[in-house]
Amino acid sequence: MKIDRKKVDDAMAENGLTPKIVAEKLGIKPTQLSILWSGKRESRVSTVTKLADAIRVSIKDITV
Fold it and tell me: What is the pLDDT of residue 53?
């Protein structure tokens, strides 16, 4: 699945979340989160689901 970085950024801003907070919720380092957002790799559905849960949106709200 491809993640839309703009949609993620917008959702995070609406919910008052920073990349550091989201990374902590996912149990990963902020640098790993950056790789996830870059779109250079396809993300697993389970990873996108965890990200969507962490930023309080549905999967369809943050994917292309």
Answer: 96
- Are 45 and 9 a contacting pair, CB within 8 Å? no
* Residue numbers in the chain where pLDDT is lower than 50: none
What is the spatial distance between Cα 20 and Cα 41, in angstroms, rounded to a whole number? 21
- In the three-class reduction of DSSP (H, G, I as helix; E, B as strand; rest coil), residue 21 is classed as helix
Q: Which domains does the chain have, with CATH numbers?
A: 5-57 (1.10.260.40)
DSSP H or E run through 47: helix 45-54
What is the pTM assigned to this prediction?
0.87
Cα distance between residue 56 and residue 62, in whole Å: 11
Give the separation between CA 54 and CA 24, rounded to whole angstroms. 9
C-alpha angle 53-11-13 in degrees, rounded to nearest 5: 120
